Amino acid sequence: MTGWPLSYLQSAGPAASPVARLAWGLGSVSVAVVLIVGVGLIAAIWRRRPSADDPMSLVPGASSASGIGWIYVGLAISVPVLAICTIWTLAVLGKVMHPASAPHLRLQVTAHQWWWEVRYPTSNSQQTFTTANEIHIPAGEPVEIVLNSADVIHSFWVPKLGGKMDVIPGITNRTWIEASDPGRFRGQCAEFCGAQHAHMAFYVVAQPRAEFDAWVADQLAFPAKGASPSQVVASGERVFSARCAACHTVSGTPAGGIVGPNLGHFASRSTLAAGSIPNDADHLRKWIADPQAIKPGVRMPAVPLTTADRDAVVAYLESLT
Ligand code: CUA
């Protein structure tokens, strides 16, 4: 089932596995009920038909075999099964409410139409950074997710790592996720939030602790600098400052807009436009040229740029590793 990134029938961590087992259990009970009722119905249809020779057999209740006994049989079977399902469900809800140990990492996730802002706060206020649509976590540790919305109601959901949690304007909700092993897990907004609800995806990247710490150290290095800051990159930065910085921040540079995602370390992310397209130079060029063609309704306008300026901005952004 690895080819089904949004399947909740397979779990990859302790916040999701009790839910996955419950889903299989309740699903099996439901299938069994449908089979039993179906077979019973077919048997009833074929068992004995009213006889034309005995007109009274066509009158409901006129026969001595009223079948009331079957109601008692049905109740005796279904009541204990439903009671077990209810208790099991409540036990699972209680179990996934809190992780076994208190999380060391608490992430601030803000939902926007239609992307995810992820803030990594630390005890040192100088040591925070913000990223978008890609959440890195250490594997084998619970991570608390503090959820806020900037506009409408969304829902945070990483099916393999935990259940859904609504993200509601004016309310702070909390949930937690944990990946038992390193891996990459798809998440998705699970509450209809407008035209591009379906394109409000994100990824959770679970890494071994040392690798995660190295990633954090990288993200804290501002400004991000590519391997070879070339002339075209420098010119791209100038174009970006003049045309894009009103909406986007690039940490460590004067660009400080807060409408769109923070693009510091932009090139380290794997997708663009909240999981809509891969993050590479080709797709980025098309995205900047006409965002509406890729994600109709997206807040990002098509900023008129010459081909040379657009290529320079692409080179600059792709240098922010
Ligand atoms: Cu956000 Cu649906």
Brief descriptors of the model:
single chain, 321 residues, alpha+beta, five-stranded mixed β-sheet, three-stranded mixed β-sheet, 7 helices, 12 strands, elongated, binds dinuclear copper ion
What does the model show?
With 321 residues, the protein is α+β, with helices and mostly antiparallel strands. 35% of the residues lie in helices and 18% in strands. The protein has 7 helices and 12 strands. It has a 5-stranded mixed sheet, with no helix packed on it. It has a 3-stranded mixed sheet with strand order 4-10-9. α4 crosses α7 (307-318). The longest helix has 31 residues, at 17-47. The relative contact order is 0.12. The mean pLDDT is 88. Bound molecules: dinuclear copper ion.
Radius of gyration: 28 Å
How much strand content do the residues show?
Answer: 15-25%
N-to-C terminal Cα separation, in Å? 32 Å
**Quaternary structure of the protein:** single chain
Q: Which class best fits the helix and strand makeup?
A: alpha+beta
The gross shape turns out to be: elongated
Number of DSSP strands? 12
- The run of helices and strands is HHEEEEEEEEEEHHEEHHH
- H/I helix tally: 7
Give the SSE layout.
Blueprint: H1 17-47, H2 68-97, E1 105-112, E2 115-120, E3 129-132, E4 134-138, E5 143-149, E6 154-156, E7 165-167, E8 173-177, E9 183-188, E10 201-207, H3 209-220, H4 231-243, E11 271-272, E12 277-278, H5 281-289, H6 291-294, H7 307-318
Parallel strand pairs: 1-5, 4-10
Antiparallel strand pairs: 1-2, 2-3, 5-8, 6-7, 9-10, 11-12
